[in-house]
Specification:
heterodimer, A: 186 residues, alpha/beta, 3-stranded antiparallel sheet, 10 strands, 46% helix, elongated, B: 288 residues
């Protein structure tokens, strides 16, 4: 896991206070964040530590966190993951609002205080995500057995969460053959 | 010729109730204009914004300042308190500004008002939010998420002035103590090109009416080229309404009042330049 203190952007951008605002500053900040993500080893997670940041307004967040998550989802950065830590209530509201207004499928994990999802996601996927978090890790068989699902349905839900960069997976070889175990990216 | 307008007592209520003030506008080059405020007993930030805009437009058209007369002591105090005369110094002469006693002082941490502040550059926005934070922390006597929500409202609205109006603008904020909550009223105004013109320039005719352009802007349509932009008004609407408050947007000859339960669009209003936004944010914290 690689952690980046988002508050550092304030000094990089030459602003003051504890707020990251305005679209132009977001565009200036994006390369810093992208650089951090690219520097994160494959299969690992960049955690944007937002402690100390009071506000990221919608325009700033659209040009930074949202754009980064969108490009990650599009596969531009390989198998890496992105999470947020300690987003303030205003940061969460502005990010959620941005995702909603763009009618986007981007969803981001926020690690405060329990893992939660920012963005829109189907209820069955959200429930699956929280079950994985609760259990630590799940295979499709375990999910199917726990929730009374067909194995294909369980497998599809976990794959979709993986494709959305919300879960990571590790391949295991068992007596049943090869299977994937899904877990929250570290 | 001196043209005197008797300003009705409509600048202290809900934004939509201020429309009668805008009806009384006819003058022509060569006139000098007076606004007689003897009927005005109370003002709120939105009324101040309209008065400021009307004086500015009049003064620019006529090439001379507008004279304000018969201000009551309360109205005079309020206008001085919000820094009206300093901001409007190029456009306004008040008949009795020197008559207030020397014992009146306007505190930088005024107990209910953040005075009119200009929005001219992006640097102004950082100064405004720094000033607003200190005022809000004093008002709430606590460090609360609501302060951050209000700061979000400020940045979104102020950046719209700079990005889209083509002119400068200003902001003022007032606190109202209610029985069980604090209501924060923010007014951000500019007298630039207005929403409809801004969108038409970028996209052509995308709405059948002026109010249609306001609704398009609320729904995320931006004059910014490309796929980005359009976040500001939607963010303002969402934050204000989620708090239990509302957003009033007036631009050109149209207005929209957005509340949780309704969207009240109005068209064919008196044309007035620029865009004026009145936001009410409700904080559940009791005033301490």
């Amino acid at each position: 896991m690689r952690s980046y203190l988002v508050h550092n952007l304030i000094s990089y951008l030459g602003t003051t206070g504890h707020d990251l605002i305005l679209r132009e500053y977001g565009q200036m900040a994006f390369p810093y964040l992208e650089q951090e993500l690219v520097a994160t080893p494959l299969h690992e997670t960049l955690v944007l530590d937002c402690s100390g940041v009071r506000v990221m307004d919608s325009s700033f967040v659209e040009e930074t966190v949202y754009e980064l998550a969108l490009r990650l989802l599009e596969g531009r950065y390989g198998e890496r993951f992105l999470q947020m830590q300690e987003p303030s209530a205003a940061v969460r509201v502005n990010l959620e609002g941005t995702i909603a207004r763009l009618k986007s499928h981007v969803t981001i994990v926020a690690l405060t205080p329990e893992p939660a999802l920012i963005g829109h996601i189907e209820p069955n996927l959200a429930a699956t995500f929280h079950l994985v978090v609760q259990q630590g890790s799940l295979t499709a068989r375990m999910l199917a057995d726990t929730c009374g699902l067909e194995i294909n349905t369980a497998s599809m839900r976990l794959r979709r969460l993986y494709a959305a960069r919300l879960l990571m997976r590790q391949e295991e070889v068992s007596l049943e053959g090869r299977l994937h175990r899904y877990m929250l990216p570290a | 010729m001196v043209v005197t307008f008797s300003v009705p007592n409509c600048l202290g209520g809900m934004p939509s109730s201020a429309e009668p003030f805008l009806l009384r506008m006819p003058y022509q080059v060569g006139d000098s204009v007076e606004y007689d405020l003897r009927q005005v007993t109370w003002m709120r930030p939105y009324g101040v914004a309209l008065l400021l805009g009307a004086c500015q437009r009049c003064a620019i058209t006529l090439g001379m300042p507008v004279r304000l007369t018969n201000l009551s002591e309360d109205v005079m105090r309020y206008l001085r308190r919000v820094n009206f005369f300093r901001l409007a110094s190029s456009w306004v002469i008040a008949a009795n500004t020197s008559e207030l006693g020397d014992d009146w002082r306007r505190s930088a941490l005024s107990d209910s008002v953040l005075e009119l502040l200009p929005i001219t550059t992006k640097a102004d926005i950082f100064a405004i939010i720094a000033h607003a934070r200190s005022i809000l922390q004093a008002w709430f006597n606590a460090d609360t998420d609501d302060i951050d929500y209000i700061i979000s409202l400020i940045t979104e609205a102020c950046s719209n002035v700079i990005d889209h109006s083509g002119e400068s603008g200003f902001i003022t904020i007032q606190k109202y103590q209610k029985a069980t909550c604090i209501a924060i009223e923010l007014v951000i105004a500019d007298f630039g090109c207005g929403v409809a013109t801004s969108l038409r320039r970028a996209h052509g005719a995308i709405a059948a009416s002026n109010v249609g352009y306001l609704i398009a802007a609320l729904q995320g349509r931006s004059s910014r080229q490309g796929m980005r932009g359009g976040q500001g008004l939607g963010a303002i609407q969402r934050i204000a309404i989620q708090s239990g408050g509302e957003l009033y947007l007036r631009s050109g000859s149209a207005s929209v009042l957005a509340r949780a339960s309704e969207l009240d669009p109005r068209d064919a209003l008196t044309r007035f330049p620029g865009t004026q936004i009145a936001i009410t944010f409700i904080s559940a914290l009791p005033w301490r």
